[in-house]
Fold:
Amino acid sequence: MATGGDTAFFELRFRPNIQLVSVVRRFVTAFYERVLDDDEVTQRMALATHELLENAVKYASDGETVLRIEVAHTKRPMEVCIQTWNQTTKGNEAIVEATVRASQEANDPFAFYQSLMAKSAVRKDDGSGLGLARIRAEADMSIACEVVEGQVCITARALDVGATGGANELRS
Amino acid sequence: MSSEADLSIDVGTFSSKFTKEGSTMLFVLAGEADAAAIAALEVLLKRLDTHAATGKPKDVVLDVRKVTFMNSSCFTVLVAWVERVRGLADDARFRIRLKSNNELLWQRRSLHALKCFAADIITIES
Structure:
């Protein structure tokens, strides 16, 4: 874990398989517990990390993914940014972009989540986008997607983390 | 034809134990409902459907208090099952009672979403 100035972050480059995702979630949970000191926020961030990684596993063309987690500001409110990068095919790139865009453009994340639940209930495949919608609806994070030099980057961001919490400071 | 023993599963990181109390089928789930649990959860709920079709329970209780995490794929399996139950004929449909642990964020958020999705058949007991 790196801490410098008012930011704590780490970056993990790995070849995740679906079983490793839970291992990484447990690992990042320890990081969140340490820097955020807030069980509620820790669970939100861990949920978002898990869903982003499962998404990366599903769509990465070479199997390699970079996960970066950054917590900015030493004092509350904090800002948490979770990013995944991975290579993907043109076809999957379009699917991921469309899924994120639909989630971004939904005025009511919960209503959008409910609509995807209804669709996923009758789908035979596993591509409803429910995991990414869950990041907005249940982890209360914004979500964005960009494609840079053939890599898809998905960013989930939470602002004002712990704004109403105690006077805990980021511990170095 | 599956037996009642088939209604208890254990895949190491995720398990479900079945008991019957009168006309109530009770499932106590525990562990992490992640990728390793998807297939088992799907099989379990299909077996539950089969038993419910003959046993005609009034209530099915899913006690998920010890499920520490559920990913969206397992949640989708649960949503699909709820949709199947909603689609049953009136005399075959049962109520779904979810026993939840409010200290776990996923349970508060996901189970609330599930209740909103099928408020007519789901109750949450904390």
In short: Strands of chain B lie at 9-10, 14-21, 24-33, 59-70, 95-99, 122-125.
